[in-house]
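User: My advisor, Dr. K., asked me to get a structural model of this assembly before our group meeting. I'm new to this, so sorry if the format is off. These are the inputs:
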Amino acid sequence: MLSDRTLGHLRDVADLPDLNGTRYELIAPLGRGGMGRVYRVRDRELDREVALKVLSGPVARASVERLQTEARVLARLEHPGIVPIHDAGVLPDGRAFYVMTLVRGSRLDELVPSLKSLPERLRLLVRVSDAVAFAHAHGIVHRDLSPSNIMIGPFGQVLVMDWGTAKVTGQGGPVDQVDQVDRVDRVGQVDRVDQVDRVGRVDHVGRVDHVGRVAHVATGAGVVVGTPGFMAPEQERGEAATVDARADVYALGALLGWLLDPANGAPGDAPRPVAAIRERATQRERGMRYPTAETFGAELARYLDGLPVEAHQETALERVARFGRTYRVALLLVAAYLFMRILLLLIGRI
Amino acid sequence: MFPQTRYSAILRLRAEDEADRRVAWDALVTAYWRPVYKYLRARWRLPAEHAEDLTQEFFARAFEQRFLDDYDPAKARFRTWLRLGLDRLAVNEAKASQRLKRGGGVAMTSLDFVTAEGEVREREIADDSDLDAWFQQEFVRALFGRAVDAVERECHDAGRDDHFDLFKACDLADLDAAERPSYKTLAEGRGWTVNDVTNRLAGVRRAFRGHVLRLLRDACASDEEFEAEARALLGDGRN
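Assistant: The format is fine. Below is the predicted structure of the whole assembly, which you can bring to the meeting.
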């Protein structure tokens, strides 16, 4: 009889990518990403190790196209904070794959206990914001920012990973079109459904104005995309068609809250300006949030530079305290000078 | 790539032609009798002989009364539906408090209850909160067992028993990941190069995957169920 342990191993074996005839040689599985698994492989032609992402199980055409879209999205984003793509294609077993730089490092959720100071945490988040802002500038919204999708390299590189659920904006209407929906937990108001070939289990359907022949239930029609706790309210409501860059701003704010949480090793209470930044980024009404990841990152950078932030109205005392922190060294030198002058004056009179 | 649509055994059970239904029924029995038997033993604590009778009765009724015609893939997975049907049969059996005779007139595919009984004793009896997962695991065990048998036959027919032996040493042994032999060790023991081991193992594994997907497809009622089951078995749906 096959033992449970052997069964577990055989399940991994059955899902291994067929690299026969390709330039890649399998080394070891690395983990699971959105839609598939990632493996460490050797590129025989360039004699280097890279990461290969492939879909799990047999896949419908829509899933293949989705992975290929992910590869094309990543290929457009050349930024130090976004992992570069090297290759993409279809394996001999028919599964789509793409190859990216092998990131050696730790996920943020694993690394966070070692980040002891608040400035260190905030600087990291500024770099994440930079990468996300770059994507936004190219019309791409990540939609699934979370601590497990951020990698920190051995030399402090910060990389935003797993763009499998990214949305390309500015193309009019829903972009992620899938031919199959396995499970729909919640469908809000649906204004139009064109054609659906198949729908899996549906737990709740709200108001539906019109259903014709349904060929696809796109993310715009109520499929929830994202990680609980980091998803913007509009994502939780399944309004994926209208999700824009402000959903990522919400996620960045949620990440900030996560970094400020003492349960995640944050040192002490959050300073009021930083708490105000988090609060503004995570406003339920997206019009009240920072409009872009760039403005969010700029606010954090201003705080780190000892400058006032837009989200927080300082009191006079806070202004003085900030001035004192920013110019601490200069003030100490001036104070020391004055002290010496007074001392010398007194000694002279004695 | 996604395999061409083929009618699964479950769908073929609805064929008008009895010969077609018989072939489909044999495929269904082969796929499910082990988990059904073990479920009756583990969940309903039926004595071995009683569970044997009920297993055969269940499939006999499925064929004679065509109650699988009532199955609607939109409402539930086939395995869940089947398990609930088994529960109903077992409850009715308990109420009637009498042993059921084997289904009359329906010749049953030869079932190795002795081996299955041995597997029941080796496995921890599931508690009631875990029945779906337990039934799933037994289904997977039976499915993989048949895929392994198919690969072994294929290798033997191709004169590649040594390839299957390699697969057996590397992937079928009950070992932790750290204990599994390295490709270097496997190569040295056989007078092969590491490249030989890599290529030959890849070939057998490819065949194994192909058989797993084929057998799984046959045990599902629709393309959607097959894709969902395959993802659950191999992909992101895994626990």
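One thing worth pointing out at the meeting: Confidence is low (pLDDT under 50) at residues 171-189, 200-221 of chain A.

User: Perfect, thanks a lot.
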